[in-house]
Amino acid sequence: MSTSQQQNTKPSHTTLLNEAKLNQQENLRKSQEYTKILNFLLNQFLTINSSSESSTLIDKFTTILQLDKQILNQLNNDISLNFYELIKVKNKLEKFINRCDFEFKKYNQFEKETIDKKNDNIDSKEDLNLQKRCEIIDLNLRIFENTLKLIDGRKSVGRAQS
Length: 162
Description:
single chain; mainly alpha; disordered N terminus
């Protein structure tokens, strides 16, 4: 199997993101259904047992129901917040990739111009162009190093928050 065929079989980032969204929505829907069933059963249980004198048991079940609602609300808020943060990071990453692509294209254009000038046999200008090229390469390396440090820092912050 050739490399292009292997790449065609891999799902795209958008496909994976959409599948994750669908799975998340399905899990949320199932969670809500289970919560409704649990609430219904507990309410039935409380109704049946409310005629007895076990008011402490009823209080405990009521407390459990309230805690369950609070936990469900917190989970829903966390899911929506995490999704929002994921979209923000995805947009930043796309901008970063576009900037890198632009820099690579600019660098390749510079390389092409340098080679073209070399072919023109302009020796004095070649030395200056070579020095400029080295400075640009050095600058690009520094930018990439700082970018990698920022990305690693964000990853470690993301892991620490998890």
